[in-house]
Amino acid sequence: MIDKTNKIQIVSSLKKCAFQTGRVDVTAGRVTGHHGPVLDLQWNPFNDNIIASSSDDCTIKIWYIPDEGLKKSNMNQPIMDLSGHKRRVGYIMWHPTAENILFSVGFDYMIMVWNIGEGTLVNSITCHPDTIHSLSFNRDGSLIATTCKDKKLRVIDARSGDVLQEGICHQGSKAAKVVFLGDSGRLFTTGFSRFSDRQWSVWSQHNLQAPLRMENIDSSSGVLFPFYDHDTKMVYVAGKGDGNIRYYEIVNEAPYCHYLNQFLTGFPQRGLGFMPKRGLDVSRCEVFRFYKLHAVKPLCEIISMIVPRKSEQFQEDIFPDTAAPTPSLTAKEWLSGKNRNPILISLRTGAGARTNKPVLYNPDRQYLVTADRNNERKFIFISEGNKVDYRELLHMNGNNNVVKDSQALDKVNHNMVASQTKKFPWSEEVPPCSASETGVVSRHVMPVATFVTIQDNDSSSDHEDSSLELSSSEELLEACKKLSSHVKDLKTKLQAKDEKIKELEEKLHLLQKEKEKN
């Protein structure tokens, strides 16, 4: 967070999804390296210890925050300084899939692309004739969308800087904001009409001459900021100076956007930040979390968007696989022209995944290297759910031959049946379903249940055990016959009940007719 003295203050986490609340100590550590007001701050999505900050002093600084935080010591020296803008740097944004790629937006009408790993300027995008108001990436980071003071919305190639599409966005003179709607090929913008009404629009990235849909919201004066959640297909719209947060659902067919509801408070907001998906509390069905900076008092309030569910199980419909804290491309691969969607991770098993990667830094060479190169395999592994092993238990005999451990199988089966009977007493009253008379039945013990499978009886190796297995098959057939007769009796009783109900309904109908005649 950025305090009133324009210094960056790090608030440490106590537990998973839990942050210390209350008044921040006056002597708490701060990042004080900038010589002007801090205008933007972004955490590295692939490294929890790296942040980038931009300032009024025309510089961008990269900071390494230790795991234990700053405590009571201030940090004055960044690990890297990036200088290239001639005027203040208003916005910065990390690339969503490529490692160590950072975009910066300055008030000199330029967008600069930086390779943080080498501390070099990769490209400068100079297609804007006036102040740039916002920037957004598409899902794989191959395109960027911008809004400008000249009232135009542009879709630009992120590497070359070529303008692919452009058109008039909102007619008002105040700032407009844009966000890509994931990989849908559409954009969502907020701005002002010619009569200063606040409005939102949905656009196709292939044609910016006219919006797919546009609607007015109200006549307030605060700039609207959109926040898009790709997993739930929700857009949250919050205005500077407002006390509410509206949220909309994005769909692929017309009208493309549906208003759902709004979160109302009586305290205006100065700004909003949000928590990445892997930091949410999935046990509470928390789908989005805002950090609201109050406008009238020095307070940062946590606002959680929670979907009410009675079940305590993991809700797969509102928590699909989300972007993992692992880059899908290196900076070199992305600069060479490759595009790739984000690596996904399951919130069922990987919600608490952290990326505390050690960083190697040589001040003489101005070179930043992430030492942990095995994160991709690690997060692919932990994103997989638990899988049951259905193989039979084996052991080695005295002749070093692998044989089936029948005693271990019987022990596992006995313990499992006993535990199931204790937990579900009625289960022992229902006999298992049998196989057909033409099959030889064999039983395999599974970790969670007992299954009956049918095998061909042509094999000569199974002929010796056929008598024992056939006897068990006869018992199963007899039990199944008893169960079938019981089911037939129930069906007969049910049919008799239906006939009786029908007879009573006819009598009631006749009585009603007689009553009407009288």
TrEMBL record:
Q: Which SMART domains does the UniProt record give?
A: DUF1900 (SM01167), WD40 (SM00320)
Could you tell me the superkingdom of the organism this chain comes from? Answer: Eukaryota
MF-aspect GO terms: actin filament binding
Question: At which residues are the WD repeats?
Answer: 31-63, 82-124, 125-166
Q: Which InterPro entries match?
A: Coronin, WD40/YVTN_repeat-like_dom_sf, WD40_repeat_CS, WD40_repeat_dom_sf, WD40_rpt
Report the coiled-coil segments: 473-517
In terms of PROSITE patterns, this protein maps to: WD_REPEATS_1 (PS00678), WD_REPEATS_2 (PS50082), WD_REPEATS_REGION (PS50294)
Q: What is stated as this protein's family in its record?
A: Belongs to the WD repeat coronin family.
Name of the protein this chain belongs to: Coronin
Organism per entry: Araneus ventricosus
Encoding gene (name): coro2b_1
